[in-house]
Every structure is written in C-alpha cells, then in structure tokens.
Amino acid sequence: MGTWKTRGLRGSGLEELLNLSNEIYRNSHIALIQKIPTPITPMEIDRSSRHITLAYFDKQSTVDYIGVVQSIPVCFDAKECASDCFPLANIHAHQMQFMKEFEEQRGIAFLIISFTKRDELYFLPYRSLMRYWRRMEAGGRKSFTYDEMDRRFPIRRSREVPAHYLEQLEAYLELSEELEQPDELPAD
Question: Which are the contacts of 188, defined by CB distance < 8 A and separation ≥ 6?
Fold first, then answer.
C-alpha cells in the first residue's frame, strides 16, 4: 500500500485533454472510453479548501483509461515527460502485466506520452513499450529516449478533438494488419 502526498495536479493537463477528447468520441458515437479512478483512502483533509492532503492507495491501479472503440477493446495509460528521456520507473510491473493480459484477450494496449518540453503527444503501442521494458529487464537502459522512440504515431491536436489519438490507433491497426499478412506465394 503506497502513500500519496499532494504535489499539485501532476499530469492533469494531459488528462484534461484526454477526458475532453473521450467526451467528444462518446458524443459522436465513435468510442466509449472511461477514466479509471485510483482508489484512495483519505487520511488528512485541509478543512478550509476541502482538499485531500494525505491519502493511502487502497490497491494498485491498472491503467488510466479503458473502453471500446468500434468493437475493439482498448486500455491505455497517460504519461507526461518533461525531458527527452522517459524513465521506465514511471510504469509499474503490474501495469505491464495488465496490458499484456489485455492484449492476450485481443484488446489493444498503449501509452499516450506527452513530451511537455516539445509540446508533442505520441501513441506508443504496448508492443513497442515491451521492447524497452525487456531491454531494462536484461540489464540495459532504464529509460528510452525521444530519439529512439518510433515516432510514426504523433497525436494531432485540433479544435474538434484536443488529442485525436484514435487516428493513431487506426494507423497502428492498419500497420499491424500489413505486418501480419502472409507473403504472397510466387505464381507457378
């Protein structure tokens, strides 16, 4: 059981973008994605502002969001990174296990990473994340850099959808289908 001490609303900018995007997707009947709240037990409350200042996590969380897009189950975590180096310590082993099991059930798991210094958002498929994770487990780097990341999946921002990550989910699915197609047999 972990302790949580308030440090402002870390990651709230990205979460606000995603929550608004998810609301637009829902209202457009494109997807139904829900934010999964982290269960906590409040220990101290600032009576003047009615804010929780000390709490304990009730249990480990899985991912930030879960839902369905056009009959495809999806789950993802939202992460912000202030530098060009993303520490894998920001992802927990139980989250990796959950995403692995989710994909085994034919769902799609991914991260949405905001490189805040660059003001860029990316869709990072679980399979790509797993390469970095395995490298770390084998004694390699405990992070991955912006430069080594597959940047084929930038998330576009627009007035219509603040973080239009479903475009990149679709691009990833199309790419995955191409990679899974068997090579054509030579003609006789």
Answer: none
